Amino acid sequence: MIDHMGILVSDRERSKAFYTAAFAPLGYKLVMDGPYGSGFGVNKPDFWLADGAPKDHLHVAVQAANRAAVDAFYEAAMAAGAKDNGPPGIREHYHPNYYGAFVLDPDGHNIEAVCHTPE
Fold first, then answer.
1. In the chain, how long is the greatest CA-to-CA distance?
2. Any stretches that span the bilayer, and where are they (predicted)?
3. Least crowded by CB within 10 Å, which of 3, 15, 33, 84?
């Protein structure tokens, strides 16, 4: 099980603004911030941003409580400057209730919100 993860971002202030907006519908917020990085989470930081030059683009999926939260994530991310990488919808090739949305963050990382329940 993953406890936390971190990604390199080229402009941490820009990325903090993006993730603050995109993660708000999922209940994630900035919970720690300092020279070492910026940590987002619900009760503890589990998604970290660190200064650096991204060498590869990552895929990160964040669990959403329901499909409405996936939709809200997608809308908030797009309003914050994301690029569409797959609008909200069923991805039956994973399983019948897989409902996800995909966006590219300011550094091109593929960020997904996903709900696995039928609502």
1. 43
2. none
3. 3
Could you give the CA distance from residue 82 to residue 67 in angstroms, rounded to a whole number? Answer: 19
Count of other CB atoms within 10 angstroms of residue 5 = 10
Q: What is the length of the chain?
A: 119
How far apart CA 103 and CA 85 sit, in angstroms, is: 5
* Domains contained in the chain, number: 1
Nearest to 109 by CA among 64, 42, 48, 66: 48
CATH assignment of the domain containing 53: 3.10.180.10
Does residue 5 sit in helix, strand or coil?
strand
The model's pTM is: 0.91
Q: Distance between CA atoms of 33 and 37, rounded to whole angstroms?
A: 6
Phi, psi for 90 (deg, rounded to 5): -70, 135
pLDDT averaged over the chain? 95
Q: Which two tokens stand for residue 77?
A: 């991310």
Q: What is the pLDDT of residues 55-97, one digit of tens each?
A: 888 999 999 999 999 999 999 999 999 999 999 999 999 999 9
